Amino acid sequence: MTTPGDEPLLSLRSHIYAVQKMGELRHVRGAHWDLELGGIAEVSYHLPHPPAVLFDEITGYPAGMRVLTGSTGSSRRFGHTLRLGDDLDDAGLVDALRGKPSQWAGSARDFPVAPVDSAPLLANEVPGEKVDLLKFPVPRWHEHDGGRFIGTGCFVVTSNPETGVHNGGCYRMEVQDDGRSTTIAAVPGKHGAQNIERWIAREGRAPVTVSFGHDPLLLALGGTEVPGGVSELEYAGAVLGERVPVVIAPDTGLPIPAGSEIAVEGWLTPGNMRDEGPFGEWTGYYSGRRRPCLNLEITRLYHRDDPILLGAPPGRPPHDYSYMRTVMKSAMIHDELVSMGVPGVSAAWAHESGGGRLFIAVSLEQRYPGHARQVAHLAAQCPAAAYMNRYVVVVDDDIDCSDLEQVIWAMSTRSDPDRDIEIMRYGWGSKLDPMLPEGAPAYNSRAIIDACRPFERRADFPRVAESSPEYLRGVREKWEHALR
């Protein structure tokens, strides 16, 4: 891919160019949209150094109509996405991110969107009656998906009808009506779903715009708990340090990022429903049976010449955005615990094997009786972790909470199940939960596991059988030749 030149802010092409310069982009030509793109992407997520993959010459489509996967799947790519640096490792990225979400949220209103009259997105405008989303290489990602999902890395814009504040969310979207429309499976309780409900209650319909190709910063923010009342587009401006240029969609009045590759605008109405799903979700399971979902009546479609679709297919971890979510959640949970005034918290880690939500570990320096339980309960219900969290494990600060083997070792040797496991009930669950019976309310329970040395036994608890870090450092230096 050539130099981006005068690409708009938040252009996907600029991101692809940067990833190619890092040497982390792979080109795949000739794959089929039906399962093969998803299968290749799935294989790539399990490689020792997962690359971003740009698909071109997709079967049945002209060259130039492309799909990108794995956009944020390494510390370098995600560090670049968050504008924190291109050469960070995992720990360095989380450290660099610490404190930033609250700073960005606090300054978001200083970066209102900047409407523009021209953008590459406007090169092609298609009226609603002529829309065919299947003119783009929309994949069927997983073998048992109910259809072709154009929305996996999308950015769905809604607004609060009372305040006018925009929200940007990332929801799965299945192509319907032979390409003329698409369902939007907004997650109940999320800000986008609340906006849709408010509009329908007030006006009988809800305006929506959707971008299907953009800088993955919008994917990251659309899938993160940005505080209520804060626009994700303004939040993105705070990350970038400049206002995000947008095209104002004429039918709905909502913004579309000017750097978008493909976008639509339209309306959701309660009488316009289509069956949707199942879909291979981030929990690693297909999400239940096919069920009715709000369907978007598209009034206009816009796209660049040779547009690129941003794909972010979930599945059994690791998947497309599990690394991204792990990094974001780990930093946000740590920050929220510190902001509550809890002393001694060393680190937090939302493990990728739990999709960045289901399994959270926190390390701390114990300072008083009950300290570990306090941290565990707060971590289980803090805003960044409250949605669909299932296990919180608290460990001493000699344990690297990002290392699952160390966490399991601490659980196995420093906790007594009878004393150290507590159950919280009626937490914020999800219909995506494979343990939730069909039709049941979306509650979940969560386990609190205190895997710290008992506070009263810290002084006489058995010594760990390992050499000191200083001694091992000297051994490595002396015997490096024999240990290569």
Automatic annotation (TrEMBL):
Residues 118-317 form the 3-octaprenyl-4-hydroxybenzoate carboxy-lyase-like Rift-related domain. Gene3D superfamilies: UbiD C-terminal domain-like. Residues 18-87 form the 3-octaprenyl-4-hydroxybenzoate carboxy-lyase-like N-terminal domain. GO terms for molecular function: lyase activity. This is UbiD family decarboxylase. Coiled coil: none annotated. Keywords: Lyase. Residues 323-451 form the 3-octaprenyl-4-hydroxybenzoate carboxy-lyase-like C-terminal domain. It comes from the Bacteria. It comes from Pseudonocardia yunnanensis. InterPro entries: UbiD, UbiD-like_C, UbiD-like_N, UbiD_Rift_dom. The keyword Lyase applies. Its EC number is 4.1.1.-.
